[in-house]
């Protein structure tokens, strides 16, 4: 056990640790590297693949999210003096490995499904090619990002579908880890959400920020009228007033008296949301506030949103169920070696044969076929580099793989705000190309089958 003089014990040290992603990993990745450098296998060329053997129970599809964050993290995968000292002092790796890590830069290549793409069991979501040493270090970092972000984006997509084009907003930051909250906001936007309450996410990714006031703001004032007046004085008549602190009917009446018919919106955060929204809508109209919008919050998920389709609601704020993947907080993605250079210098497909955990050998191509403009099958073609180079894709199929990193060079097109918005638009298009059963909330099989062919 480290004493107080050697442990991380200050905010400054914690901040420094977060500036590098090189230790966002499991220890065995560094111990494998150490052993591989000793026996010479660290320099063998390899292809690792990220895939999931199954979707969460009953889900019809998944949405890829997080790849842009992987690229951001890859740029910061550097080991400075602090990281190297930690590995050395703990005896995790030896001197030779420390020397190797001192100048580490990922020089391999990464291809995969674009963000916003639909995925299914055995879809080759990401393929990482390089030496064993550099690829093995990325396993936990890649999986931790893809598993969480894709879970949130998949849940968000189901919620947006249930909302029937009414805007959904991320309000889940307080229901998860503070850093996961930022990742969840980004993933939610890819899944179709329109804004986030998390200011760091809004700053980092140039997202729309939303939010006005909580119940405590009403409670701290001597009256609800005083609270509403203060909020309108500060934010203008277009603000949204929270009307369920005391009596909703009285609050709506007071809100319109204070703001006039130009009041931007009201928010309801408790009770029978459908019934209350109907009553509030009728009351607002009767008071002349016909353009005032109604937002509802309070533990919403895709099923609650579906139940509110007939209610006069204009937008939704979603929290807990969004950032926890609506019951599926991970996508069960794995990172497996699919091809490696043997002792003769020849690339050789490899695979696990473990019971219930077998994998498909070889690097992969991935396509989607269509009939009458609807996707009907995911096609995964596996084989050696030479056999895949000779493979001819049928003209009607769509190639699902894009290049993210080419021999260490990152394609910046897949990073930043524009990449997120492109992924959001792509998700809507890709979902529309699936059979309509994909949008069902009933438990069922994946929307389309996956056909794996080994050449």
Automatic annotation (TrEMBL):
Q: Which domain of life is it from?
A: Bacteria
Q: Which residues cross the membrane?
A: none
Q: Name one GO cellular component term.
A: cytosol
Which Gene Ontology molecular-function terms are recorded? glycosyltransferase activity; nicotinate phosphoribosyltransferase activity
Per the UniProt entry, what are the Gene Ontology biological process annotations, in alphabetical order?
NAD+ biosynthetic process via the salvage pathway
Q: What is its EC number?
A: 6.3.4.21
Q: What class of enzyme is it?
A: ligase
| Pathway in which this enzyme or protein is active | Cofactor biosynthesis; NAD(+) biosynthesis; nicotinate D-ribonucleotide from nicotinate: step 1/1
**Reported modifications of this chain:** Transiently phosphorylated on a His residue during the reaction cycle. Phosphorylation strongly increases the affinity for substrates and increases the rate of nicotinate D-ribonucleotide production. Dephosphorylation regenerates the low-affinity form of the enzyme, leading to product release.
Sorted keywords for this record are: Glycosyltransferase, Ligase, Phosphoprotein, Pyridine nucleotide biosynthesis, Transferase
Q: Which residues form the Nicotinate phosphoribosyltransferase N-terminal domain?
A: 23-147
CDD domains the UniProt entry points to = NAPRTase_A
Q: Does the keyword Glycosyltransferase apply?
A: yes
Which reactions appear under catalytic activity for this entry?
5-phospho-alpha-D-ribose 1-diphosphate + nicotinate + ATP + H2O = nicotinate beta-D-ribonucleotide + ADP + phosphate + diphosphate
UniProt domain Nicotinate/nicotinamide phosphoribosyltransferase: residue ranges? 168-328
Q: So what does this one do?
A: Catalyzes the first step in the biosynthesis of NAD from nicotinic acid, the ATP-dependent synthesis of beta-nicotinate D-ribonucleotide from nicotinate and 5-phospho-D-ribose 1-phosphate.
Q: Which family does it belong to?
A: Belongs to the NAPRTase family.
Which NCBIfam families does the UniProt entry name for this protein?
Answer: NAPRTase_put (TIGR01513), PRK09243.1-5 (NF006698), PRK12484.1 (NF009131)
This chain belongs to the protein called Nicotinate phosphoribosyltransferase
Q: Which organism is it from?
A: Bifidobacterium subtile
């Amino acid at each position: 056990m480290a004493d107080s003089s050697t442990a991380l014990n200050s905010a400054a040290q914690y901040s420094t640790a977060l500036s590098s992603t090189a230790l966002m990993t499991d220890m065995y990745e560094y111990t494998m590297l150490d052993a591989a450098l000793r026996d010479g296998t660290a320099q063998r060329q390899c292809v690792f693949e990220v895939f999931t053997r199954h979707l969460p129970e009953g889900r019809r599809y998944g949405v890829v999210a997080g790849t842009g964050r992987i690229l951001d993290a890859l740029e910061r995968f550097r080991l400075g003096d602090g990281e190297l000292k930690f590995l050395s002092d703990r005896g995790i790796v030896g001197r030779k490995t420390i020397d190797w890590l001192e100048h580490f830069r990922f020089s391999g290549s990464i291809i995969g499904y674009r963000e916003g793409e639909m995925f299914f069991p055995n879809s080759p979501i990401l393929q990482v090619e390089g030496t064993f040493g550099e690829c093995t270090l990325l396993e936990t970092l890649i999986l931790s990002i893809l598993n969480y972000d894709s879970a949130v984006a998949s849940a968000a997509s189901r919620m947006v579908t249930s909302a029937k084009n009414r805007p959904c907003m991320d309000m889940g930051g307080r229901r998860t880890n503070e850093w996961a909250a930022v990742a969840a906001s980004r993933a939610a936007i890819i899944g179709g959400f329109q804004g986030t309450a998390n200011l760091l996410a809004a700053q980092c990714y140039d997202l729309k920020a939303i939010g006005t006031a909580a119940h405590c703001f009403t409670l701290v004032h001597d009256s609800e009228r005083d609270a509403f007046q203060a909020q309108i004085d500060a934010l203008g008549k277009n603000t949204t007033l929270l009307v369920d602190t005391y009596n909703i009917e009285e609050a709506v009446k007071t809100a319109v008296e204070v703001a006039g018919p130009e009041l931007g919106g009201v928010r309801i955060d408790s009770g029978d949301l459908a019934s209350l929204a109907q009553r509030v809508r009728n009351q607002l109209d009767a008071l002349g506030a016909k353009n005032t919008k109604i937002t509802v919050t309070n533990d919403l998920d895709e099923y609650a949103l579906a139940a509110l389709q007939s209610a006069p609601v204009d937008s939704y704020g979603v929290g807990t169920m969004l950032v926890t993947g609506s019951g599926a907080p991970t996508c069960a993605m794995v990172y497996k070696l699919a091809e490696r250079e043997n002792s003769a210098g020849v690339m050789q497909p490899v695979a696990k044969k473990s019971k219930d955990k077998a994998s498909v050998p070889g690097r992969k191509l991935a396509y989607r076929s269509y009939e009458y403009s609807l996707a009907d099958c995911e096609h995964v073609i596996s084989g050696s580099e030479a056999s895949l180079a000779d493979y001819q894709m049928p003209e009607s199929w769509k190639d699902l793989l894009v290049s993210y990193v080419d021999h260490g060079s990152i394609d910046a097109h897949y990073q930043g705000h524009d990449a997120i918005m492109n992924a959001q638009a792509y998700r809507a298009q890709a979902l529309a190309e699936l059979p309509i059963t994909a949008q069902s909330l009933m438990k069922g099989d994946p929307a389309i089958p996956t056909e794996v062919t080994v050449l």
